[in-house]
Design a protein that fits this description.
The structure is a homodimer. In chain A, strand 5 and strand 6 form a beta hairpin. Chain A has about 200 residues and is α+β, with helices and mostly antiparallel strands. Chain A is globular, with a radius of gyration of 20 Å. In chain A, the strands form three sheets. A five-stranded mixed sheet of chain A has the order 4-3-5-6-7. Chain A folds into two domains: about 150 residues, 2-Layer Sandwich (60s Ribosomal Protein L30, Chain: A), CATH 3.30.1330; about 40 residues, Wheat Germ Agglutinin (Isolectin 2), domain 1 (2-Layer Sandwich). Chains A and B meet through helix 3, strand 6, strand 7, strand 9 and strand 10 of A and helix 3, strand 6, strand 7, strand 9 and strand 10 of B. Strand 7 of chain A pairs antiparallel with strand 10 of chain B, so a sheet runs across the interface.
Amino acid sequence: MNICTYSYEEFLHLVKSFHGTLAPGLLIGGFMVDLAMKNLPDGELFDAICETPVCLPDAVQILTPCTIGNGWLSVVPFGKFAVTLYEKYSGRGVRVYLDTEKLNNWPEIRDWYLKKKKKQDQDSEKLFGQIKEAGHGLLSLQKVQVEPEKVRRKKMGPVAVCPVCQEAYPTRDGDKCRSCQGDTPYSDIVSVSASK
Amino acid sequence: MNICTYSYEEFLHLVKSFHGTLAPGLLIGGFMVDLAMKNLPDGELFDAICETPVCLPDAVQILTPCTIGNGWLSVVPFGKFAVTLYEKYSGRGVRVYLDTEKLNNWPEIRDWYLKKKKKQDQDSEKLFGQIKEAGHGLLSLQKVQVEPEKVRRKKMGPVAVCPVCQEAYPTRDGDKCRSCQGDTPYSDIVSVSASK
């Protein structure tokens, strides 16, 4: 049993190292990306979509060339456990999702996934066992036509120096940067000199 | 000269392997994360904010435990080249940004960053040389107080099976999932059986 080019054990090590913990969603995500890779349409360059920011993006980033920073991985906020790989230019793709109709064969996974048990009542050994045993068995596949412009990040366009904070920002945002317009997540900012 | 626990050369290899290309923004991003790590406030657990999805998130994901999938890295869409690491609970943090006032010492970086030259007119050897030479020299530092609830992703809450697509979704989105409400990036979906 492999996850892409890795053995299952190797994949667990990569998950631990990149993600910090062996999250059940990320292990299932590994099987999802593996199944998608084995069912790619023709093409050479593939972009990815995750339909939730939770766990799944890390499976894609560990197993494919697509990352958040290079823009080949997009996240859409549907809260759905599904991943799509699609040919960059044509948009032809394959979508893998966790199929709720198949969940009854794996009650520990079902109860975790549908939040039927509190965390302290979960049997994590059983859960991890069922995930490994189920493999692709939980998943279903669809062919999809992606409209890339709906998911791909926009080009930044021209930049200017913000008259308030003196940092560069995209002029599409207006006459000052969004942070200085009040969107800032910082309630207090103080310049300091650095230790190096 | 190190980037966190890596030599500069080792960091270049990690960038190539994770991000696919030696993007200038990601190399500068390495120095930014390094400088932030060297100036952390007291604390044990740190979350990260990138103020652009471009390149910088990959520097954070390569060099810190914070990833998109584990939720410890948030991206705010300000189009600004800045990274913040902050103590998870208190919100006390350090923000590193590319300081436009320091850019004049490094004309090739300035012209790339402020988009003063077309890509084909850039001298990439000179650009990479100046990035390595500049190191922390382009950067400035601020102490910030983060309001974590403004950046951290929301808990998913209760889930249900969508009556249209039969997949699980967060009930906060309404009586069917957002995709079935019409937000879908797919124009065509066909179920297929998988090759394994």
